[in-house]
Amino acid sequence: MVYSLTWLPDVLEAAGLKVAECTGWRTRGRGDVGTIRGVICHHTAGAQQGVMPSLNTLINGRAATAQTKPLTGLLAQLGLARDGTYFVVAAGRANHAGAGRWQGIESGNTSFIGIEAENTGINEPWTEVQLDAYCRGVAAILKHIGASENMVCGHKEFALPQGRKVDPTLDMDTFREKVGQILRGKAQLRPSIPSSDSSGRATLRRGAKGELVRQVQFTIGITKDGYFGPNTEATVREFQRHHALVPDGIVGPKTWSELLKISATPTAQSKTAPAVIEGKFKPDQACIDLIKKYESCKLTAYPDPGSGGEPWTIGWGSTGPDINKETKWTQEECDQRFDSDLIHYGNQVVALLGSAETSAAQFGALTSFAYNAGLHALEESTLLRKHKAGNFEGAAEEFARWIYGSGKKLPGLIRRREEEASLYRSGKIE
Ligand SMILES: [Zn+2]
């Protein structure tokens, strides 16, 4: 059954907070809550690494260790990650309060929402972004239930006998003061997710429309209708989980950065791509030779020349979530990755070609082009349009237009495009 606290994500989102809903949260609970009167703040006392390493424990509890008693699962309705994201864990009753009293109310689990904020509890300073989200989230909940800041307390204040709990490691009087300022509209708030990334790409969320949405949809392999609806949001979350991002379904700067890597290296397979048809569509030796001639192979990761950092690149120009500044590969590993990347590229190019008649040489030339300029560039190009229309000479001439890097003509690109055009022309279709 669906429990009562289904309003949590909307209320938090309306306060400008990042929210990630955990699968099955609406029907999760140890029964339902009663009338909610306030909020009890906790810290997880969890691991030091990661944004929300305790998430699984919040849901499932944990077994006893030598030092600790076992914890029976569902330990809070909300988990607050170190980066300020709220994970919505449950809409029902959670086991978070234990015996205690606050403002005369003793039924902790029934009357209070529990928020477990990720913090080791051992001298870990609270980051500004997490603390800000903590106060804002609590204020939003209190406003929703019509309560004042006096209705938020720390677990250490609620728990009886006194001293039974030490969490959270926050000065709760200061915390309440800040919550009160927010409730009265007097707080200085830090800005939430930036509205665009450093290149000016807008942050996209549910309801957004237009060309950027189409670009996202293309990259994650769903129908490009240009509307950021529930399906787009769900697929973005899936993408984010896959790339170790916070699965909030919002395409902000960090998600953009990962998406842009993928649109240049389609190791994340597009759902519209056909299955790997090795042999028939594997780019041939002429294509492989052409690409390897213009990409050098590096055994240690190097930064992107544009950003000086992400995305880190290694081998034959490979990038991906598994590659960072520490990555070192053997020549064999580089070659293996190149082979598998090339098959993925080949398949994506096949998908773009559809039923258009294409020779092996043309296919090789287009794959080399896509490997370098990106699949998105190929997809939107006049080159592809002319090819699909059977205007092969017109298509061959198009290669020469793609010779710019950072607004300048690059000699390496001029030569590469000449060779691609020449390979393309070598495979005539009668
Ligand atoms: Zn606690």
UniProtKB/TrEMBL annotation:
Keywords: Antimicrobial, Bacteriolytic enzyme, Glycosidase, Host cytoplasm, Hydrolase
Domain of life: Bacteria
Matches recorded under SMART domains: Ami_2
Pfam families found in the cross-reference section: Amidase_2, PG_binding_1, Phage_lysozyme
Residues annotated as domain N-acetylmuramoyl-L-alanine amidase: 24-169
EC number: 3.2.1.17
Recorded catalytic activity of this chain's protein: Hydrolysis of (1->4)-beta-linkages between N-acetylmuramic acid and N-acetyl-D-glucosamine residues in a peptidoglycan and between N-acetyl-D-glucosamine residues in chitodextrins
GO MF annotation list: hydrolase activity
Enzyme class, first EC level, given as a word: hydrolase
UniProt xrefs under InterPro entries: Amidase/PGRP_sf, Amidase_domain, Bacteriophage_GH24, Endolysin_autolysin, Endolysin_T4_type, Glyco_hydro_24, Lysozyme-like_dom_sf, Lysozyme_dom_sf
PANTHER family from the UniProt entry: LYSOZYME RRRD-RELATED, PTHR38107
Family: Belongs to the glycosyl hydrolase 24 family.
Protein name according to UniProt: Lysozyme
Organism: Buttiauxella gaviniae
